[in-house]
Write a structure and sequence with these properties.
Chains A, B: This is Transcriptional regulator, MarR family. Two copies of one chain form a homodimer. Chain A is mostly helical. Helices cover 63% and strands 7% of the residues of chain A. A two-stranded antiparallel ribbon of chain A has the order 1-2. Chain A binds a DNA duplex (30 and 30 nucleotides) through helix 5.
DNA sequence: CTACAATATTTGTATGTACAAATGTAGTGT
DNA sequence: ACACTACATTTGTACATACAAATATTGTAG
């Protein structure tokens, strides 16, 4: 469906407006699809995101500001996200011995196991949207998005 | 900046994953930029969205479900969005005489005036991101996004 | 006409987000 | 040592979102 039909526009729109709406709406479609996946395992998308970042640390714990800077939505409240993950025993949180201002957050085995289960589901979710595009088109889309974003 | 640098990825990612993260992150960048614009006029992005939909009605009032289906984020709570706009006297809300289950929401002159002020700012915001792309590339990006989304 | 399903909207509740202020710790200059 | 600034995180508050349940109205089958 074209974006004009999605929002049932009555008058023609400029190309820049169509692109913006298309990106906003596409993100929404992706986000809702991913929400379902995460929710089925009692995670919010942002909680999943934190777990993924912690696994990327390969054993090393991450402190709060490291997590924050690696998140997609930079304005999330990391403290409360980690609180929720703690309750589910998917992460640990300890004061950093070298610098007591910092916290060391690490993923637990239970957290790693959960990610392992989710991996193929997430891969499939990511691949699903690319089904209609050739490899060449995928590369092009990726390049255009980066060019577009870097104002 | 490439998306790998944005999220400071340590290991290489698949193209489908890069595209998804790129769309999510780009939406975030656009959204935060637009939030500032809306906020400067005491509107949330979704409140602006409702006003824009109501103006598109060209005088005809819209009922709640019409507003809902034209919004980008379909899960917003339209009742409470309209509540906020009512308080600012940017819209009116009345029971529909033909069907008392429905509400008729219409934009006021004050609302139209506000949109008029915002129009050039929003146009500029939309155009800004396209600056790096040729007309041809813009068309291509738009087409690829629609192809991508329609799973 | 009555009971029941369908439609349109509102409300309640839990959760998430945005942002400012507060807290606690570390580094720096005097 | 002292005051001061910078840093890292947490907390408070208002607002937004997700989703189920409640309310009110209309349409419909028997």
């Amino acid at each position: 469906m074209k974006i004009e039909e999605v929002i049932k526009a009555t008058t023609p729109m400029s190309l820049p407006k169509k692109i913006i709406l298309n990106i906003m709406y596409t993100q929404n479609v992706i986000g809702e699809s991913f929400s379902e996946i995460a929710k089925a395992h009692d995670l919010s998308p942002e909680q999943y995101n934190v777990l993924r970042i912690l696994r990327g640390q390969k054993g090393k714990p991450a402190n709060m500001c490291v997590i924050q800077e690696r998140m997609i939505a930079k304005t999330s409240n990391t403290t409360r996200l980690v609180d929720k993950l703690l309750l589910k025993e998917l992460v640990t949180r300890e004061v950093c011995p070298d610098n007591r201002r910092k916290m060391e957050v690490a993923i637990t085995q239970k957290g790693l196991d959960l990610l392992k289960i989710l991996d193929p589901v997430v891969d499939n979710h990511e691949a699903k949207f690319c089904n209609n595009l050739t490899e060449k088109e995928q590369e092009l889309l990726n390049e255009l998005l980066e060019k577009y974003r870097n104002v």
